[in-house]
Amino acid sequence: MRAMIVKDLRMIARERTIMSAMAILIFIASFSSIITFGLLVLYKPDFIALSGVKVGVAGECPVLKMSGADVRYQSLEDGLNDFYRGEIDALIYLPRENTSSVNFVTVYLPKDEITGIIASSKVKEILKEYQKRLRERNGIPPDHGFRFYDDEFRRSEIKEGSSITFRFIYAVLIPLLIITTAIISGGLAIDLISEEYETKTYEIIISTPLSSTEFISSKISVSLLISSVLSAIWIALLYLNVGIKNPALLFIYSISLSMIFSSLGSISSLIFRDRERSQLVFSLISVSFVTASFSSSSMMAGVAARISAGSYYTATEFLAYPFAGAVLLVSAIVLSKRLEIMD
Amino acid sequence: MLPLLKAELKKSARKMTTGFRIFLVILSIGAIAVSYISFSHGFSSDSGIYISASDQYIIQSRIFHHFTVESFQSGIELLKNGEIDVFISEREVFVRDDLKSMSAGEEMKRFLENEFSKWLYDNYGDRAFPVLIRAEYLKREIKPEFTPKPVSIEEIKKIQERIPSQEKIEPEMREDVIKRAIEQKPLGEEVVGIKREAAEFFTPDTFSPPSLISKMVQAFLFLIPSFFAMQLFSSSVAEDVRLKRVEIFLASPIGSTDYLLQKMLPYFILSLIFALIPSLIFASKGIVYVLPAFVLLFSAQAFIAVNSRSYRELTFLILVVNLLVLVYLVIPSIFSGLPLSDISPVTFLLRDLANEEFSPGDFVISAIPLFFMGLTLIYLTSESMTVENIQSYSSPFKKFADVLSFSAKNDALAFVLAAMTVFFAFFLEFFLIFFSLSVPLLPSFAVLMLGVAVIEEFFKSVLIYPERTIRRVFAVAGGFFLAEKSLLFAKVFSDYSIVLPGQFLLFPFLLHFTASFIFAVLSGKDWRIGYAAAVAVHFAYNFMAVSMT
Question: Residue B324 and residue A27: Cβ atoms within 8 Å?
Answer without folding.
Answer: yes
